[in-house]
Amino acid sequence: MATAAPLLELRGISKQFPGVCALDQVSFPIYAGEVNMLLGENGAGKSTLMKVLYGAYRADAGDFLYHGRTLAIGSPADARTLGIAVIFQEFSLVPFLDIAHNIFLGREPYRIVPGLIDHRAMHAEARKVLDLLGMEYDTRTLVHRLGVAQQQLVEIAKAVSQNARILVMDEPTAALSERETARLFALIRQLKREGVAIVYISHRLAEVFALGDRITVLRDGRKVATLLPSATTPDELVHLMVGRAVDTTYARNFCDQPGELALQVQGLASDQGISGVDLELRAGEIVGLAGLVGSGRTEVARAIFGADKVTAGTVRVYGEPLAGGPNIAARRGVALIPENRKQEGLALIRSVQDNLLLASLAKLFPRIWFRPADGRRACMETIDELRIATPSPLRLVRYLSGGNQQKIVIGKWLKAGCRLFIFDEPTRGIDVGAKAEIFNLIGELVKSGAAVLMISSELLEIVHVCDRAYVMRDKRIAGHLERGELSEPNILRLAMHHE
Amino acid sequence: MNDAISADGAPRGSGSRIAAAPGVAYILVIMVLVFGALSKDFLSAPNLLNVGMQSAILLMIALPMTLIIISEGLDISLGAVLTLASVVLALILARGGGLALALAAAVGVGLVFGLANGLLVSLIKMPPFVATLGTFGMAQGLALAVTDGQSVVGLGESLESIYAGSLLGVPAPLAFALGAYAVTHGLLYHTRFGGYVFAIGGNREALVLAGVRAHWHHVGVYVFGGLMAGVAALLLTSRMNAGHPTAAIGMEFDAIVAVAVGGTSFERGDGWLFGTVLGVMAVGVLRNGLNLLGVASSLQVVSIGLLVIVALLIDGFKRRA
């Protein structure tokens, strides 16, 4: 079945972002009539590679060879002309247009005058594509009325209807039920027979072996291997994906004797889709919450903190039930340090001092009056304690480095006297040196008797920083790993579908 | 999980949502009943016709405002641009220029300001409120400057006859309003451009990834606003048979009210053009009814503010229910 030459070949693609090399000399051959699997853990560079392929990013170096000829893909429009269609993982749908118009967005059939949409033709064509996918919805339904699975199907219909020669699917089954998945697989097999090249990104190893004709593994922005499924095993793939060099700056003294129960979550479910979440956390412990992007880790943190609506289950903090929203959680000594610190955790255009005092105003100044001298003193203490590099407490936060910004977010809650910290991706966008300092800081927090729940996409961080970890998959806890079991392959096995 | 809602997909054309009547529809019915009971003149045919005529110009501003707001934008310069276009039109006529030239100049003023708004918002990525606040000041200032703050009169009779005239038995202002609605409806629901207006507000990234030049369509939304303001200037100037440098001050406020009351969302890329018509009627009925009851115009502004809040409250409750 292997064709002689690939239809499209990406050669030596490199892409640099400020501070990170997202892709380093990656080559990826795409064969017509095959399902070309792309594998890799979080941050391995799969999405970046696909964005380069689709013209959403421009590569810093490298070539595209189409039928052996070099060409450039500089924009999504170029990619379309080449017959490349993408099923995006983050939905590229317009909520208040109907299904048919979403499928044909930018390619609306017109009658007489270009620009005047032929609604009848558009709905008829849309109907055909939906039938192919076994989707029974009226093509006039507005997309915002659809559930996640239906939206995913519309996304698939949109790409399929382009009669693409290269069809990229980024985790297309993540939101689909078994029946819909079976339909999709049947369609993929049919497209393959018609000579379409399919690029398929998945975290489900079962799918990789069920569908894949060729498997390319990425790790740290580099290509590790291109293999045939018949010549490999699930275990080998997991090892190819992890095997990253160990960085010893994370080493810490682990907690031998955890203290009292700091957090007890039972059967937690929220309106964001998580359900049946059980976890426990003791004072003095750093417990990891691992899982792939989208597995529901952030949603668990938000539900505990009361930022999302809890639909079932209980949360107890130091023995007392907690419910009622972020203000109550904060008052009870729970701190959530969000993933997106620029949007949720910091006021960038305010000073270091303003940010540090924000969460603790009520505690420092129980009466109405704000006493500037006391505020300044508390703020200077925190700056020293956390070694925040700032020329003055009045410096605007936006001028500080990512690491220092993160310390301010932590410092904000430290001053508020918190005893339970939830960190969501505490080291995202932070350089290596600052990372070590953040971990030292987290280490000091637990030494002083606090409890820490740490969400991270970096498997190594979980392995080296956490006392133990819970692993999530599909919005549920998939398993729990004790200190001795904590390793990258073990986490990945739980995080990926490994039926 | 969502199989239960499969059959009730609301088509996007007008009329389909009347079943799910928005808050403004209830308010309109209640207002008509109350004003009809309190004032015997209110329900008379001449008065109702009067309400429709007076609302025509507002509708011509509110229609493009709907598109602008669907695209997650705002244009607070429209009232001032309408005013400037009106005094330019009046000045040309007063100096002996032909009606065609005057109308072309008025439309030109609208297009220039629309283009400026569109470029500032779409290409320079200025927040729409700030960008149009700037052009609002410029248009209003220019309208005062070119007229020395005085009304422009002596325009002859050619203009006056437009407002008083009729087309196939329909009074001219209503004919203008119907025409403007038909054009805007066709644009929003039957052209690619209209679909892209929803996309710019709902998910601009999707449009870019579909290979559409989203930024030019985004500019087009504001240009359409300017164009409609230019055409509306003809009606406005003709109604007064004069150019007043403060003629349409605050009309953008009424237009935004009408759009909001009509059920168009300010942040989701959701909108309903016919709802805006209902919104304009609600504003018109409210002003007219309060006039008949002898309520001071300052209190009328208060009641229009109240109208927005009540209409949105009703919609909010309905969405939760």
The helical percent of chain A reads 25-40%
Structural class of chain A: alpha/beta
**Can you count the helices of chain A?**
18
Radius of gyration of chain A: 25 Å
Q: How many structurally independent domains of chain A?
A: 2
Shape of chain B: globular
Question: What's the total count of β strands of chain B?
Answer: 2
State which percent range the strand residues of chain A make up. Answer: 15-25%
Helix/strand-derived category of chain B reads mainly alpha
Task: Quote the average pLDDT of chain B.
Answer: 87
In the CATH scheme, what's the topology name of the largest domain in chain A?
Rossmann fold
Mean pLDDT figure of chain A: 83
Largest interface: A-B, 39 and 32 residues
What does this structure look like?
The complex is a heterodimer of chains A (499) and B (321). With 499 residues, chain A is α/β, with parallel strands linked by helices. Chain A has 2 domains: 8-241, P-loop containing nucleotide triphosphate hydrolases (Rossmann fold); 249-495, P-loop containing nucleotide triphosphate hydrolases (Rossmann fold, 3-Layer(aba) Sandwich), CATH 3.40.50. In chain A, 34% of the residues lie in helices and 24% in strands. Chain A contains 18 helices and 20 strands. In chain A, the strands form 4 sheets. Chain A has a 6-stranded mixed beta sheet, sandwiched between helices. Chain A has a 6-stranded mixed beta sheet with strand order 16-17-18-13-19-20, sandwiched between helices. A 4-stranded antiparallel beta sheet of chain A has the order 2-1-4-5, covered by helices on one side. In chain A, a hairpin with a 2-residue loop joins strand 1 (8-17) and strand 2 (20-30). The longest helix of chain A has 16 residues, at 178-193. Chain A starts with 7 loop residues before the first strand and ends with a helix. Chain B is an all-alpha fold and 321 residues long. Chain B has a domain at 54-249. Chain B is 71% helix and 1% strand. Chain B is built from 12 helices and 2 strands. Chain B has helices spanning 23-38, 45-70, 78-94, 99-123, 128-147, 160-164, 172-190, 192-209, 214-240, 251-261, 273-292, 297-320, and strands at residues 166-167, 170-171. The longest helix of chain B has 27 residues, at 214-240. Chain B is globular. Chain B starts with 22 loop residues before the first helix and ends with a helix. The chains are: A alpha/beta (499), B mainly alpha (321).
